[in-house]
Amino acid sequence: MQEEIVTTNKKMIELKNYESVLIVEDEKSLRITVNDILKTLQDKPIIYLNLTNTYNSLVSNLKKDGLKINNILFIDCITQLAGGNVSDQENVLFIKEPNDLTSLEIAISEFFESIPGEKWLVLYGFSIFKIYNKEDIVLRFIQSIFENASVNNAKIVILSTQVKNDSLIKKMAHFFEKVVMEIE
Predict the structure, then answer these.
(1) Are 129 and 100 in contact (CB under 8 A)?
(2) pTM surpassing 0.70?
(3) Which fold has domain 16-181?
(4) Where are the chain's structural domains?
(5) pLDDT tens across the length of the chain (184 residues)
(6) Across the chain, where does the E strand assignment appear?
(7) What are phi and psi of 49, to 5 degrees?
(8) Are 69 and 62 in contact (CB under 8 A)?
């Protein structure tokens, strides 16, 4: 069995030791880190919420990087917003926009409840939420996700790019068992 260790720049994170991890890095490092996390968790059920790429682009990149995606349920908030094709597919749920936090919360909750045992939520591009939502609404959304995860044996990894003086990151950091900030 593969060790559940992820390298983020100079730090090692043992994912199995934490229920929740927040990682804040520059965009280039974050892309490498999320791939490391997905490789580490490739044998576990994952819901992958990506706020930066369309589904087709994301899947193409993950496959190119040699990642297995059969255990991943993707939640896509970008394809429809970008005017892309949102045809029915088995492992993706298309949400209209990143400001539809109610639909996101329902989808995540249903995933948590439908999969027995340990499961993971990997949320990539968290800082995008601030473009589409007010800070207090995003905080309530995150709090709700954490409450739901705790009763459903789900673990959470949220990845965000660096934003100077990001008050949202500071306010939500206390929710996480492990916070890794690679601020330059």
Answers:
(1) no
(2) yes
(3) Rossmann fold (3.40.50)
(4) 16-181
(5) 445 556 665 556 788 889 999 999 988 888 899 999 999 898 899 999 989 999 999 999 999 999 989 999 999 999 888 877 777 778 999 998 899 999 999 999 999 999 999 999 999 999 889 889 999 999 999 999 999 999 999 999 999 988 776 888 889 999 999 999 876 5
(6) 5-8, 11-14, 20-25, 46-50, 72-76, 92-94, 119-124, 154-161, 178-181
(7) -100, 110
(8) yes
